[in-house]
Amino acid sequence: MEAFLLVDFGSTYTKLTAVNLEEEYIIGTSKAPTTVKTNVLDGYDKALSRLYQDHPEIDHISGISACSSAAGGLKMAAIGLVEELTVEAAKRACLGAGAIVKQVYSHHLTKREVKELKESDTDIVLLAGGTNGGNKECIIHNAKRLKEAEVPFPIIVAGNKDANDEIEEIFEGTSIEYYIVDNVMPQLKKLNVDEAKHIIRKIFIDKIIEAKGIKRAEERIGEIIMPTPEAVLLAAELLSNGYEDIEGFGELMVIDIGGATTDVHTIGEGYPKRTEVLLKGLQEPFAKRTVEGDLGMRFSANALLNLVSNYNFKKYFEVDDQCNHDIDKSLNRRSQDVDFIPHTKDEEEFDKAIAKICADVSMSRHVGHVEVVHTPLGDMYYQTGKDLTDLRYVIGTGGVLIYNQDAKKILQQVNKKSDKALELRPTNPSILIDKSYILAAMGLLSQKYPRTALKMMKQYLL
Amino acid sequence: MKTVVIGVIGADVHAVGNKIIDYVLKEHGFNVVNIGVLSSQEDFINAAIETDADAIMVSSLYGHGEMDCRYFREKCEESGIGNIKLYVGGNIVVGKHEFKEVEKRFKKMGFDRAYPPGTKIDAAVNDLKEDLGL
Ligand code: B12
């Protein structure tokens, strides 16, 4: 039987998904630890032989498509002028391209900031600032600073177009590798991230893959076409929009709770649902992704008590939870031993509580909120961010959720809450789980076979 | 081309005048950045920074202009655009006041110009051209 193979070089596992394109079903999946330190193909080969072993019916691989988040994923720095405007636009471009944004700078870069940036493990810098025809002094200053410091990362210039000639002169003939693209905020509050996202992907394919030691894989599998989170976002978009005559799910959310981060993706405009509510702030991306670096099951477990008090933490235990949890100790243990796997009932229940907190807090940050402004004329309502109250589907993915018996219960944390009344959370969504762990694979597949990818998602998300 | 940020400050929803100002300024060759009604001081200032504006023209129609405009100039200074031209107009205070008094108070607050109710925007355009050396 012929199989189409989708490969995800993940941070811990290299995961394979074999698809029968003709009959539109998943033949099987397999995984093996990712081996970037030695030869990335070792892990791939191991996973492949497991796949063959389990599915001897596969006798031919008709094509391969791959994504990667290995070796720390794609790390970016976002630079802009005003925090709520071009800095935010720059961040959204990075996140939408599947990157993790570690460094964020606004206004004029100081020498100290540039030094910090240079010493960081950034892969790509996105330099924005100014609307077209607007401020160019700041972005030019920042370009000079980056040049002076000989920042060794590719720089994408996506700011005020009026500054581009000068920036080009600054970078030309230096060691700086730069790319000039459309402004991420050409007009005030207008978001325009497509070209920036496109070039991020291109640099990722051309350069970053190589720097991370994953390039060798291409000898055998062809080009690695995108960072894994972007594949997930593409899958979510397809599932929401539908394709040709196949209907999509409409507004939806994909949430992935991991060891180090919690990713939330929503597809939809999220406009105000009530006429008396006024929309404020930067335009929201239709496909929006946020990544919370302080919300995770292991690496960032210790940070949780900065976000939720000991007292509030207890509220996340099930009402019938009979265990006697030592919160500090349990969190510590997990952040120290990031490979920790729960065995006892007690440990499982505790993990569940962490996951609930990740879901709840990440939702608070992702979702839009209304603000009541008491004016001389009575109360007025402003909405910042997306209104997700009518969102129909919440989909859980990632190791933590798909292997958890109570995943749906955990995900209910994203719903409307009486103590968070001003957050525009989903009211009564259906919750589905990516049980077969195929979302990233379907995002990849959607590049060539959108129809098949969509049909299979509708079938395999339970 | 000179850039002017316009908008209606505070909890004020009077939208019609704002559209007219937008239109008239554009006719006179200005690059207009219109942040619309219900705008906070921060909205005006952030817009002015990103667009490198030369002037901010604040409208207030509903009578609470004085309260809404307090510390506007100070915030501009704090944000690095202390030299920007600040105009205000509309119906900036409630009830009948000697406008000279009102004007004085707004100038003391750091506004370059304050206009009495019923001022045609064309009057302000001439001032603007003068103030920006056009
Ligand atoms: C239509 C209207 C409304 C509509 C607005 C609909 C909308 N979304 O636009 C509604 C019904 C919502 C409304 C509500 C209220 N309104 Co009303 N409204 C009016 C009305 C009748 C017309 C406004 C208008 O559109 N004019 C036409 C435009 C073209 O003129 P303009 O807005 O004045 O703008 C021009 C000039 O002022 C000037 N200008 C404006 N800004 C600037 C800035 C600069 C720098 C310069 C140079 C010039 C300038 O140029 C503009 C263009 O020519 C006026 C009365 C009037 N005839 O003006 C009252 C009026 C403005 N409203 C008034 C009041 C009190 C209210 C309410 C508080 C009533 C209430 N108790 O609910 C609420 C406030 C709601 C809110 N949160 O803002 C008062 C304000 C009193 C004051 N300031 O002393 C007025 C003057 C009526 C009155 N005489 O009592 N209102």
Question: What secondary-structure arrangement, pairings included, does this model have?
Answer:
The complex is a heterodimer of chains A (462) and B (134).
Chain A: E1 2-9, E2 13-20, E3 25-33, H1 40-54, E4 60-68, E5 75-79, H2 83-96, E6 100-105, H3 111-119, E7 124-127, H4 137-148, E8 155-157, H5 164-171, E9 178-180, H6 194-211, H7 218-221, E10 224-227, H8 228-241, E11 252-257, E12 262-267, E13 277-280, E14 287-292, H9 304-307, H10 310-314, H11 327-336, H12 345-366, E15 369-375, E16 378-384, E17 393-397, H13 399-402, H14 407-411, E18 430-433, H15 439-445, H16 450-460
Parallel strand pairs in A: 1-4, 4-10, 5-6, 5-7, 7-8, 8-9, 11-17, 13-16, 17-18
Antiparallel strand pairs in A: 1-2, 2-3, 11-12, 12-14, 15-16
Chain B: E1 3-8, H1 16-27, E2 31-34, H2 41-51, E3 55-60, H3 65-69, H4 72-78, E4 85-90, H5 99-108, E5 113-114, H6 121-131
Parallel strand pairs in B: 1-2, 1-3, 3-4, 4-5
Bound molecules: cobalamin (B12).
Structure notes:
The complex is a heterodimer of chains A (462) and B (134). Chain A has helices at residues 40-54, 83-96, 111-119, 137-148, 164-171, 194-211, 218-221, 228-241, 304-307, 310-314, 327-336, 345-366, 399-402, 407-411, 439-445, 450-460; strands spanning 2-9, 13-20, 25-33, 60-68, 75-79, 100-105, 124-127, 155-157, 178-180, 224-227, 252-257, 262-267, 277-280, 287-292, 369-375, 378-384, 393-397, 430-433. With 462 residues, chain A is α/β, with parallel strands linked by helices. Chain A folds into 3 domains: 1-71 and 212-222, Nucleotidyltransferase, domain 5; 74-208, Rossmann fold (3-Layer(aba) Sandwich), CATH 3.40.50.2300; 246-433, Nucleotidyltransferase, domain 5 (2-Layer Sandwich). In chain A, the strands form 4 sheets. Chain A has a 5-stranded mixed β-sheet. Chain A has a 5-stranded parallel β-sheet with strand order 6-5-7-8-9, with helices on both faces. A 5-stranded mixed β-sheet of chain A has the order 14-12-11-17-18, with helices on both faces. In chain A, α5 links the parallel β8 and β9. Chain A is globular and about 60 Å long. The two termini of chain A are 27 Å apart. The mean pLDDT of chain A is 91. Chain B is globular, with a radius of gyration of 13 Å. At the A-B interface, α2 of A face α2 of B. Cobalamin is lined by residues 11-17, 20-21, 57, 59, 61-63, 87-91, 94, 115, 119, 121, 124 of chain B.
